[in-house]
Amino acid sequence: MADGTKVRFWKDQWIGQAPFCKKFPASYAESIAKQFIVAQMNMGTNQEEGAWNLNFSQRLYENEVSDMLLILNDF
């Protein structure tokens, strides 16, 4: 994946066996950043390492967000 400037966070398969839009459909539906690339979602260079700005329009189901963050924290 290199630096994440060409890989779409939600629609490309970059971690695991499926794109995040398929693995976390409720989260994808509430995202206001559906076309963002990985580099736009990762705040590691500006904030604490491994911080993600997932850009949701409203509060989501806690279990789905928790599952997604577990995957991202291993990245």
UniProtKB/TrEMBL annotation:
Identification of the protein by name: Reverse transcriptase zinc-binding domain
Lineage: Eukaryota, Viridiplantae, Streptophyta, Embryophyta, Tracheophyta
Gene source species: Macleaya cordata
